[in-house]
Amino acid sequence: MWEDLSGAGFAVSFIDAGGVRTRVAVAGDGPALLLLHGTGGHLETYQKNIAALSRHFRLVVPDMIGHGYTGRPDVDYTLDDYAAHLFALLDSLGTGQAFVCGESVGGCVAAWMALRAPARVPALVLNTGILERPDEAGLRQLADLEVRTRRLMADLSLEAVRRRMEWLVLDPRTMTDEMVRLRHAIYSQPGMVQDVQKIMHAVLEMNRGVYAGTDFINKERLRDISCPTLVLWSDHNPGKPYERVKPAIDLIPDVRVHVVRDAAHWPQFEQPESVNRRMIEFLTGVR
Question: Does pLDDT of 99 surpass 90?
Fold first, then answer.
């Protein structure tokens, strides 16, 4: 991980964001770019992207609420909850506008932020995460991931954490021992696995339909995204294959699409050069 980050000047600190103690990495100069991880993740999701992207942007890379070493407030963990915290984080950093890139559920959060406050999000990058529900096979995969998460309460071993994380990548050998140890350390915090289970259940329910009284994940909402959008999908994405989400992608008014080859759910980790290049080309061209 240090090899990936050693060329970047960055700082990791804890700041108050709307009353939540929030771990965040900040790097680079230029237009602000907020990078959001997926369910159960943390800012190290972007370890292979920070150095390259920070040459063009001021990166803001947080642990979202309930994740990593950020606080775990007693909320439902809806897209509204995530968005409110992240806007508060940007406010704390004095950042009015930011490009937003989200991976997995972070993509859903990114799209939700653009819908809630279009003036604050001049462009989006949706990375294997979009406001479209999976088919029945995809729902079963998510339900299986929820079961794997629940099992961590009984067996929080390095091997159990590795089995859960290998779902994210096409080649299990690319999931490093270091990343597994880091995830294990995060999940070993008191009460953390229980909270991750709560969050995983919330994500599953949002993908099934109505959760906490709102139909959050609904592709029809994509018609209302007003900013330029880049969709980065992968050719082996579990749960929501490209063929499933293409009709939803086509609803976004101003959209560009790139399918990353030889990747599963973490293309930014498995194929960082391709992802970094596409993001830089797209976001530096936004006016």
Answer: yes
